[in-house]
Amino acid sequence: MTRAILSCTGLDKSLGTLAREVAIRGAEALGCEIICPVLLHNAPARYAKTLAGSELIVIDGCPTRCATKLANQLGAKIDRKVLLTDAVKASDLTLEPSLSLGPNGLALAQRLVDDLVRELTAPGQYATGLPTLEAPDDYLTVTQDKYQFRIPTQEYAFTENDTWVRIVGEQAFVGVSDYIQQKLTDITYFVPPASGDAVEQFGELGTIESAKAVLEIIAPVSGSVVAVNTTLIDHPELINEDPYGAGWIAILALTDYAADQELLVDGTAYAAVVQRKAAEEVG
Amino acid sequence: MADDTFMGVKREKISWAPTIDYTKCNFCMECDVFCPHQVYERREDDPKLVVAHPHHCVVFCRACSKTCGPDALTFPNKPETIALIKQLRAEEDVG
Fold first, then answer.
1. Is B69's CB within 8 Å of A64's CB?
2. pLDDT tens digits, residue range A198-243?
3. Angle at B18 between CA B14 and CA B21, to 5 degrees
4. H runs (alpha helix) in A122-205
5. Distance from CA of B66 to the nearest CA of A (A)
6. Signed CA dihedral, A252, A257, A201, A151: sign only
7. What is the nearest CA distance from B15 to chain A, expressed in angstroms?
8. Is A7 helix (H, G, I), strand (E, B) or coil?
9. In chain A, which residues have their Cβ closer than 8 Å to the Cβ of B86?
10. Interface predicted TM-score of the whole assembly (ipTM), two decimals
11. What domains does chain A contain, in order, with CATH numbers?
C-alpha cells in the first residue's frame, strides 16, 4: 500500500515549520505523497483517492492537533502519528524560536524522519509472540441511563483513574476499564509506552486517542515495561471491543506491588467509583 | 461533585490542579472546552481564563494539557502527590 503524509503547516510557529520540513523530508525518504491540509480542508475531493488508498502518516506540530482533527473530520484512518511537541521534549536539542529552521531544527527534522523510516520499514516488528489474555467470565454491571459498564469481579484491581492490573506470576497485565473506553468512544490511535521503560504507579503508560480526547494511560502499578500490546497500534479498536482481554495495554515486571496495593481497589469498590462518575457525567 | 474524595481522602486536601503559565497561554480556551469538570472559568477581565475550581480536577488527570497548543499547562509532581495521599490516608486511618 502507498503512503501519504498529512502535516501541520503552522507557518506562524517554529513547530509548524519543523512539521513542514519533516513532511517534505519524510515524503522524499518514503516516496509518498504530501497532502496539503489547507487544500484538503477546502477541497477534500482532491485527495479522496489518496486517502482511500494510502496508509496515512499525520504530523502534528502542537497539541492543538489540527492535522489529526482534520483527518478525523474526514473519517480518514490514521496509521502513524508524530506529535512534534513531544518529540522536541524527548530530544536533547532545543528548537530555535525563529520561523526559519536553524541547525537544531534541521537536525531534529532529519532525526524524526530517520525514526519514522526505521519504524515503518522494519519488517515483522509487530505482534509476534505476544502473550494472550483471556477476558474474564464474571462481571459486575453498573447501569446509568442507556449505558452499561462491565467490571470484572475476580483477579482485576483498579485505580480510580480507570485503569486495571491483573497479576500473572511476577508480571502484571495492565489496561483500561470498560467505563473509560465507552467514555472515549471509538479509540482511533494508540501511542505505546517504550518497552524497557521504568514507570511509577500513576505514571504515564502511553496514550489512547479518540475524536473526543487524548487520554494518558495511568499506570496502576510501578514496574518496568517488559511487553507492549503492539497489536493495538494497527487495531486500537480492540480496546473498545475487549478492554479486559485482547485490549490489554502492556505487561510490567512489578517492582513494589505490596506498596502499590494501598492505592488500588477491587472490582466492587471500583464499581462504586464508576457509578458515581457516571451519575455525574451521564446523568 | 457528589462525592469529594480520592482514594478515601478528602479531595480538598489534595493539591492536584493545573497551573496556567500566562506567558504562554493564548486564551484559545481549548482546555476549558475540553474539561467536563468545570475546573476553568472564563473572565471578562484579564486574565480571561483562571483555574477557578481546582478541587474539581480529577487527581492525576492531565488530559486538558494534551489539548494545549502553546504548552501552557503544568501539574504538580505525581510522586509527591502520591506520598501526600498515602500520608493523609494514614492520618485519617483510611482503608
1. yes
2. 999 999 999 999 988 899 999 999 999 999 999 999 899 999 999 9
3. 140
4. 178-184
5. 6
6. positive
7. 16
8. strand
9. 262-263
10. 0.90
11. 2-121 (3.40.50), 139-282 (2.40.50.100)
